[in-house]
Design goal:
The complex is a heterotetramer, with two copies of chain A (325 residues) and two copies of chain B (325 residues).
Chain A (H helix, E strand, L loop, with lengths): L1 E5 H15 L3 E5 L15 H4 L5 E3 L4 H13 L3 E4 L11 H15 L5 E4 L17 H5 L5 E3 L4 H13 L3 E4 L10 E5 L11 E4 L4 E5 L4 H13 L4 E5 L2 E3 L3 H11 L2 E8 L5 H11 L9 E5 L8 H7 L3 H12 L2
Parallel strand pairs in A: 2-3, 2-4, 5-7, 6-7, 10-11, 10-13, 13-14
Antiparallel strand pairs in A: 1-8, 6-12, 9-11
Helix pairs in contact in A: 1-6, 3-4, 7-11, 8-9
Chain B lengths: L3 H26 L19 H9 L6 E3 L5 H6 L4 H9 L33 H13 L6 E6 L6 H12 L4 E7 L2 E2 L2 E2 H4 L16 E5 L3 H16 L5 E6 L17 H8 L3 H11 L5 H22 L10 H4 L5
Parallel strand pairs in B: 1-2, 2-3, 3-7, 6-7
Antiparallel strand pairs in B: 4-5
Classes of the chains: A alpha/beta (325), B alpha/beta (325).
The complex binds thiamine diphosphate (2 copies) and magnesium ion (MG) (2 copies).
The site of one magnesium ion has 7 residues of chain D, from strand 4.
C-alpha cells in the first residue's frame, strides 16, 4: 500500500522498519533519542525499538563516526546521524581516511550509513547550509546518494542500510516537511547507480539532484510555456554514478544543463559536464551549462541567500542560450 | 577589588542582556513569520548572563575574547550596542556581519572579539592564536576562551587546552556549564561531575564558581587573567549555571525536569546581584527599577532605529568581499 | 643573481628571506624546529631567525591551524606546516569553516599560508600520498596553489605569505630533492591567477600542475618524435584560476588533455574541462580528455602505485585519440 | 596469576619481536635501494616491546585490539606470523594488505585486530565502536586501544576517552609513553608528567606502570580488562618506556640525548624479563640463548619463504576491491 508521506517521515519509516527487520541496524547521534533529533526525524523512534537501538550521544562527531566503523567491523549496521551536514568537517578523517580505504586495504566490509542533513534555503548561514557532497565523491570507498523525494528517501535509505559499504546519505533538510509524495508502506530498495527520470523532454535535459529538483521542475514548466521541452534527470546517486544512464539521456536531447545547489566551482557538476563532453562529444549541439551557487560562503539573509543560490532565471537563460546555439 | 561603580555597572549589563534577549524571545514568538523582523531563531543566555558579564568585565582594554553562542553580555560589555545586535538579528544594513551571518554568529576585531562560528569548541583554537601573537609580540595581554559543557566534548577543545598549557599561552578558558547541550544533559555528555577536573590533565590550574553570581565569576576570571598576563600560563574557570531557556527560541525545553528549572530560578543572576547590592547597601529596589526602565526605553529607541535600516541587498560586493585585498 | 636550487631549498629560502624581511612572518608545525621537519625543508632555519619565529608544536593539526587564524587576526603572518598533506583531514573544520569564511563574514583579513606537502609517487600508501586540493578549491575564501618547479616554489610562496588571505600551498613532496632549476637569490613574487607556459605547441595542449608536469614534459618529448607538437600549461594557481589564460591557450590548439595526479573522478580536472567546453565550445576540435589517478585508495606497493597513477602511455594514447578526432 | 608457561611465552614474544624488528632495521640499511626487499621504512618498537606483548597477552580469545604503529608484538601474539609481517613489509602476494599498504599499517578482522591508519590516535574511535558492539550484543569481551604520547594530543583521543567513559564501554586505553614523538620530546607535547592524569577528567581509573617490565604491564592491563569485561567501564594504563630507535629506520635520533639512551638501555625489556625469570628460577641463560637461536632460525626460514612470493601485480581487483559486495 502507498500513501503520501513527507520526506522526513519517509526517512523515519525506513529507519524504523529496518531496525525492526534487523536488530543489527541501530541509530545514534546527537539529540536523536528522546528528543527525536533537531529536525524531529527520529521522533518517538526510541520507544518503538530495542534498548540501545536508538541512542543520543555526546557532542563528538569524530567519536560517533568512529563508533560506526568499529561497530560495522563487528557486524552491526550502524546508522549515525551528523546533526547538520556542515559538522562533518570535524570528523572528516574518520570518513575519508579510515572508512573509505578499509575494505580495499584489509578486505573487511563496513556496512554503515551516515545520515547527513544537508543544504540551505533556510536562512541559517554558512555553518548550517553547505553542500559538501563533492568532497566525498572524490574519495574512493564511499558511496554518496542524495534523495529528492520521499519515495527515494525511503528507498535509497533502505539500500544504504543494506549496502555493505559506507554510504553518505545526504538528506535535504529543507525538504523534510515540504516535499511529500507517494511512498509504499512496505520496505523496498531504490538501487544505487541509477538515475531517475523526473520527466521526459525533447529539447534539452536538466541533470540535477536534491534541493534543486523542484527548481528544475519549475523551470521545465516555464519552458513549456515557451514551447521548450525539458527533460529532468535526477542523478541522485553521485557515487556510484550512472554514467551510461546519463550519457544515454543526454544523447536524447543533445543539450544539457547541470544544476546543483553546491557551488559551481569545483562542484560535482564538473564531473557530469566533463563526462558528457568526453563520452558524447559528437552528440553535443551546444556546451553543457553548469549552474550552481556562486563562490561565496552561504549568506544568512534571505535576500543574499537567494542571490547566492541558483535561480529560475539562470536556468531559463541557460535554456535559452542552449536552444539558440 | 570591585568598586561600587563596578558592581553597579555589572548589574546594568546583566539587566541589559536580559532585557535585550527577552525581546528577542518575544519577537520570535510574535512576529509575522512570512515577513519576520528577526531572521531565524534566537540563542539566549537567559538565566546564565552572569558568566558572560562577570568574565568579560574582568578583561582589560587590550585583552581579547573568543565568545561562544551565549555571550551577548560580553559583546555588549566590550562595545557592541543593542542596535548592533538587533541589526545582526534582523540581517539589515549596518549589521556587524552585513546580513551575511545572523544572531549570535558574530565578533569584531575592532572590539577585540573573535567571530564565533557554529562548530562547537572551534573558537578555542584561534583564541590560542591571539594569545600566541600577544606573547610573540611581548605584550602582557590575555584572552578569554568561552565554551560550553557540550562543546567540551569536541576534540578541538582538548587540543586547544593542551596546546595553550604546554606553550604557556595567556588564555583563560571559561566553561559555561549550563547543564544542557540542546536536549542532552551533561550526564550524557560526560561522566565527570566537574569539567574543571580536566585541567589536571593539562597541568593547568582550575577553579569552579557559582556561575550565577556575577561578582564571583568576576573574581575567578580576574585572577586567572592576572595569572595569564603575568606569563604563568592558562587556567580554567568552570561556571556552574543553568540554561533557563530552550536551546533556541523555538525550543520549549520540555525535556528539562520542571524541578530543575524551579531550583535554578532561585539562583537567578539578576536577583542574586540585587541581593548582594542591597546587602552591601549599594543600591535599592528603586534603583533596580530605574535601571530596568532606562534599559527598556533604550531598547525601544534602538528597535525604532534598527527597523529604519534597510534589508541588506546583494551586489558585486558579495563576490568581492570573499577575499581581502 | 640566480643559481640552481632544489625545490625544497627554494621553499626554505622563501621562508627564511620572508622571515628576515618581516618579523610578523613566522613558521610552526610538528618537528619543524631543531629537527628541520621530516623532509628537512626547514633544516637549520631556527638558528637563523628570531626566538619563536620557527617553532615545533604538539601533534595537534587543528590547534596549529587555529593558532594561525588567531595570530593572523592579531596581525602576524603565520606559516604553519601540516607534516603530510593527508593529515589536514583532522583539521578540516578550521580551514573550511573558520578560515575560509572569516573575511566575508566580518571583514577581517587572515594573512596566513598553510604549507601542505602533498602527493604520492613515494610508495608510502594511502595516508601519506593523497592530493586533496579539490576539496579546498570548492571552498570560497581560500586560495590554492601548487608549484611544479623551484622557481615557482619560491615565488608562489612569497606571494602566498604576502597575500592577505588564507593560502593553501600544496608542496609536491616528491619533488623536494628531485626538481632543480634556476632561482633568483633575491625575493620575487609569482602572482596568483596566472598560468605558466611550460612549452609551446601547435597540435594540442596539456593542462597540468604539480607532480604531473614532468610527466607532461616526457609525453611532449615522446609526441614530438611522432611529429605531434604539444603545448604544456602549468595551471599552478587553482584558486584563483586563470580562466582567461586557460581559454586562450586552449584556443591556440583546439585540443586538450587535462592531467593531474589527483583521482579523475570529481577531481579538479572536471573544473578545467567544464570551463573549456562552456567557454570555448566552438573551438573544440575534440573532447577534452581528463587523466588522473584511478578511483582507488593510493596503494603502497610500487607496482600498484604505478598502475594507480597517470602513465605516459595514457597521455600518449589520449594525444593519439585527440589527433585522430 | 601468570604461570611459568605464561611467563616463558611472553619472554618468547619479546624476543620474537626484537629479532624480527632487528632484521627490518638491518635490511633497511643493507638492501639494494633500487630494488629493495623492504619497501619504505620500518617503524620499530625496539626497547618498548614489553608494552605491546604484555598488554596483548592479557587479552582473552574474544577480545579485540586497535594496535598502533609500534605493536608488532601484539600482532605476533594475536596470530600474525613473522612471514605475514615480512610480506607486509615487502608488499608481496600474500601480504595481509595485499601490498596495498605497508609496514605497520595493518590489522585483520579474523585476528580481532583493527587495521591501523596513520592518522595518530584515529583508531581510538573505532575501538570504541567494537566495544559498543560487544555491549550491544550483550557479550562480555573487551578492547585494547593503543596510542602514544604524541597521539595523545589529538582531538580524537579526547573524544574517544570521554565517549567510552560516559557510555561505560569495555575498553582499556594503553598509552605507550615512549618519551618521543618523532623528534619532539613529550615535554613539548604536553605539560603533564603523567598522561594517566587525564583519566580524572573522564571519571576513569588509571594506573602507571613500568612499561619495560612485561609482567607488570600484563598485570595492569589484565585487571583493567577484567574491569571492562565486568561492565564497569573503561580505564587507562600508561606504560612508561622509551623509543630506543629513531622514529623510523631512516632516523638516527641524533636529537635524543645520549644519556637518555644510556639510562634506558639499563631497563631493556628483554633483559628485564630475563632477570625476573632467573630470579624466580624459571629459566637460565642457556634457555634464553636457545629461544633466541630458535627464533633466528625461524626468521631465516620465514624470510626464505617470503621472498619466494611474487611482488603484487595490479589487476582488475584493484578497482573491484574498493567496495565490498
Ligand atoms: C561540531 C558541532 N556539532 C553539533 C552542533 C550542533 N549544536 C549547536 S549548539 C549544541 C549544543 C551545545 O551545547 P553547549 O556546548 O553545552 O552550549 P550551550 O548551548 O548549552 O550553551 C549543538 C549540539 C554544533 N554546533 N557543532
Ligand atoms: C594526525 C597526524 N599528524 C602527524 C602525523 C605524523 N606522525 C607520525 S608518527 C608521529 C609521532 C607519533 O608519536 P607517538 O604518538 O608518541 O608515537 P611513537 O611514534 O612515539 O610510538 C607523527 C607526528 C600523523 N601520523 N598523524
Ligand atoms: Mg550547555
Ligand atoms: Mg611517543
Amino acid at each position: 500500500m502507498t500513501r503520501e508521506l513527507f520526506y522526513a517521515d519517509a526517512i523515519r519509516e525506513a529507519l524504523l522498519q529496518e531496525m525492526q527487520r534487523d536488530e543489527n541496524v541501530y541509530c545514534f547521534g546527537e539529540d536523536i533519542g528522546d528528543y527525536g533529533g533537531v529536525f524531529g526525524v527520529t521522533m518517538g523512534l526510541i520507544k518503538e525499538v530495542r534498548p540501545m537501538q536508538v541512542r543520543s550521544t555526546p557532542l563528538s562527531e569524530a567519536a560517533i563516526l568512529g563508533e560506526a566503523v568499529g561497530a560495522a567491523i563487528y557486524g552491526l549496521r550502524p546508522v549515525p546521524e551528523i546533526q547538520f551536514g556542515d559538522f562533518i568537517s570535524v570528523a572528516m578523517s574518520q570518513v575519508v581516511d579510515l572508512m573509505a580505504s578499509y575494505h580495499y586495504r584489509v578486505g573487511t566490509a563496513l556496512p554503515l550509513t551516515i545520515r547527513i542533513p544537508s543544504g540551505g534555503m533556510l536562512h541559517i548561514g554558512n555553518f548550517h547550509s553547505n553542500c559538501w557532497e563533492n568532497w566525498f565523491t572524490h574519495v574512493p570507498g564511499l558511496k554518496v546518494v542524495v534523495p529528492s523525494c520521499a519515495y527515494d528517501a525511503k528507498g535509497l535509505l533502505v539500500s544504504a542500510i543494506r549496502d555493505n559499504n559506507p554510504v553518505l546519505f545526504f538528506e535535504q533538510k529543507r525538504m523534510y516537511r515540504v516535499i511529500k509524495d507517494e511512498v509504499p508502506e512496505e520496505l523496498y530498495e531504490v538501487p544505487f547507480g541509477q538515475v531517475r527520470d523526473v520527466c521526459d523532454g525533447d529539447d534539452l535535459t536538466i541533470f540535477s539532484y536534491g534541493n534543486m529538483i523542484p527548481l528544475a521542475e519549475e523551470a521545465a514548466r516555464e519552458l513549456e510555456k515557451k514551447k521548450i521541452s525539458a527533460a529532468i534527470v535526477d542523478v541522485r546517486s553521485l557515487l556510484p554514478l550512472d554514467k551510461d544512464g546519463i550519457i544515454e539521456r543526454f544523447r536524447r536531447t543533445k543539450r544539457a544543463i547541470v544544476l546543483h545547489e553546491a557551488r559551481t566551482f569545483s562542484g560535482f557538476g564538473g564531473e557530469i559536464a566533463s563526462l558528457l563532453q568526453e563520452e558524447a562529444f559528437d552528440d553535443m549541439a551546444a556546451p553543457i551549462i553548469r549552474i550552481g551557487s556562486i563562490h561565496t560562503p552561504v549568506p544568512m539573509s534571505p535576500n543574499l541567500e537567494k542571490a547566492y543560490l541558483p535561480s529560475l532565471n539562470q536556468v531559463l537563460e541557460a535554456a535559452d542560450k542552449l536552444m539558440r546555439y | 577589588m570591585l568598586t561600587k561603580e563596578d558592581k553597579l555597572k555589572m548589574y546594568h549589563y546583566l539587566v541589559l542582556t536580559r532585557t535585550f534577549e527577552d525581546w528577542i524571545f518575544y519577537i520570535c514568538h510574535n512576529q509575522d513569520q512570512k515577513n519576520p523582523m528577526v531572521i531565524g531563531k534566537g540563542y539566549l543566555s537567559t538565566g546564565q548572563e552572569a558568566i558572560s558579564v562577570g568574565a568579560s568585565y574582568a578583561m582589560q582594554e587590550n585583552d581579547w575574547m573568543a565568545p561562544s553562542h551565549r555571550d551577548v553580555g560580553a559583546h555588549l560589555l566590550r562595545g557592541m550596542s543593542m542596535k548592533d545586535l538587533l541589526l545582526q538579528y534582523m540581517g539589515r544594513e549596518g549589521s556587524p556581519t552585513k546580513g551575511r551571518d545572523g544572531n549570535v554568529h558574530l565578533g569584531k576585531s575592532e572590539l577585540k572579539s573573535l567571530a564565533f562560528i557554529s562548530h562547537m569548541g572551534a573558537m578555542t583554537a584561534p583564541a590560542n592564536g591571539v594569545a600566541f601573537a600577544m606573547k610573540y609580540k611581548g605584550e602582557k595581554n590575555a584572552v578569554i576562551s568561552f565554551y560550553g559543557d557540550g562543546a567540551a566534548q569536541q576534540g578541538i577543545v582538548h587540543e586547544a587546552l593542551n596546546y595553550a598549557a604546554v606553550q604557556k599561552l595567556p588564555v583563560v578558558f571559561v566553561i559555561n556549564n549550563n547543564r544542557w547541550a540542546i536536549s542532552t544533559p551533561v550526564s550524557t555528555q560526560t561522566s565527570v561531575e566537574n569539567l574543571a577536573d580536566r585541567a589536571v590533565g593539562y597541568g593547568m590550574p582550575s577553579s569552579i564558581c557559582e556561575g550565577n553570581n556575577v561578582y564571583e565569576v568576576y573574581d575567578h576570571v580576574a585572577s586567572a587573567l592576572d595569572r595569564a598576563r603575568a606569563g604563568e600560563g592558562p587556567s580554567m574557570v568552570e561556571c556552574k549555571s543553568m540554561r533557563m531557556s530552550g536551546h533556541g527560541t523555538y525550543d520549549m525545553a520540555k525535556y528539562v525536569p520542571e524541578e530543575e528549572f524551579e531550583e535554578w530560578k532561585k539562583k537567578d543572576p539578576i536577583k542574586w546581584a540585587e541581593r548582594i547590592l542591597k546587602e552591601e547597601g549599594l543600591a535599592d529596589d528603586a534603583y533596580f527599577e530605574k535601571v530596568k526602565a532606562d534599559i527598556k526605553e533604550q531598547l525601544n529607541k534602538d528597535i525604532a532605529e534598527a527597523v529604519k535600516h534597510e534589508q541588506v541587498r546583494p551586489g558585486p560586493q558579495e563576490l568581492a568581499d570573499v577575499y581581502a585585498e
